[in-house]
Amino acid sequence: MRVPAGVSNRHVHLTQAHADILFGRDYSFKKWKDLRQPGQFACEETVTLQGPKGTIQNVRVLGPVRSYSQVEVSKTDCFVLGVTPPVRDSGDLRETPGVRIIGPKGTVELESGVILPFRHIHLHPDDAAELGVQDKQLVAVKTFGERSVILENVLCRVHPQYRLEFHIDTDEANAAGLRNGDLVQVVHVDAFHELRTFKPQRVLVVNCGSSSVKYKLYQMPDEVILAEGNLERAQYESLEEVFTAIFAGVEGGIDAVAHRIVHGADLFQTSVRLTEDALAKIESVSHLAPLHNPINLAGVRESLRRLPDVPHVAVFDTSFHQTMPPSSYLYAIPYELYEKHRIRKYGFHGSSHRYVVERAEQLLDIPRDKLRIISCHIGNGVSVTAVRNGQSYDTSMGLTPLAGVTMGTRSGNIDPGIIPHVEELEGMTTAEVLDMLNHKSGLLGVSGVSNDVRTLLEHAEQGHERAQLALDLFVAKLHKYIGLSLARLNGADAIVFTAGIGENSAKLRERICQGLEYAGIFLDPSQNWDGHGERLISSRYSPVKVLVIPTNEELIMARDAYQLTV
Hints:
It is an enzyme of class 2 (transferase). By secondary structure, this protein is an alpha/beta fold. The protein is built from 19 helices and 28 strands.
């Protein structure tokens, strides 16, 4: 649920008796403007507050009169006045300091009643029922914008006369970049600061590829998987037939759909709700990922046809890397090509690297804004990302997923002069050479045996020289990018292995870490070889920690869809 914010400046509530002293006998306040809460209004009248250290003038009186007098101030006001009030709910005046209130007709020596107001949400019982909260319960809110923060210990006030509104004082509003009318998201914050909202939803996550469609149905915010599958798509089989099979396996309603989109270029810094404008922008950059984006979009359109009234969300592989500086993403080619055609490094596997960063923050107990990790997504596709202050700072993949480290069937970085040279020598077209670099190179191309590391390890143990050569080349290229990341980050708190090979091949992890001892990286052999699942595999004496974190891109997608649609 999203709630409009009301920024509350310092103000005073008065009893009729105190109003009479300050403004004259049987005084009636003059309304200046109505407030959002029914029956409440700001008065034309103002008073002066005087404390032990200082004075604040022109403090607004709020009406109507109450059964108690109360002064609500910010922390900055407290410093000016020289008082130290507690954080209190309105009307709770226990152990509160007093202050002198000066009006045009008299002075009131208030013995108690100065509070720092509890940040709070006014809720109608219907709003409270939708959230699943009760009066006086504490929740949290997430703000948006340049200074996005999470504010915990937000008090719920539930009453039939209340209108939905989040109240916050000026100090906190300024720190969070909030203005009147801005929206905040009501969330739950667990021990690891993972965001969850309250409203239950069923989120379908779809990853539509050329040869298969993967899907998972999540119950959110509990993050429980209700159904999942990976449907292979035969050449003669239409996408409509595949989606018919998916929806046949998904029982019950669907509240939102999350779609994986491989390339968003620099048009999308975060996941977005899919609109006609967003779809047009994705179309406009699909030439950057011709093997992926068109089929991703075909899946979106098929889902929209079946669920036109349900919100759909695009989650981009590239968005996580939009924090890279120009020194990381620019190529040393004529700058006009970047200006005219946006030719630059974009990076991929963003959802995987995002998940790894979130888990590493929790496992290492290092705040994200101080976290430096090297995230190694090693599967059939491979990317190494240098994460500084919890954000992508550099990554190995480039304009397309072909660049960077040697992969299962992809070459990774090569001398670009090879392409016209092979065209001339082999009589191939550019498209044919690119197909070779994408599908017939890498581990498969060097070994001549397989792109599967398990198969190559078996062959290498039996003396197969090219299988061993492919593995040596694979490790050498990973060393190159890990070393680059160490230099770009000026050291690291941890190296993280994720994805199929990174999670499951102890032998490859061992080989990759050998030679990195100079940087303070030392494995614990027993944890590396005998442990399972998410764990620390570095020696207890290793300055740089080494982690295995099984990735969960689908969960990241479900969370994004949930946060954008509740």
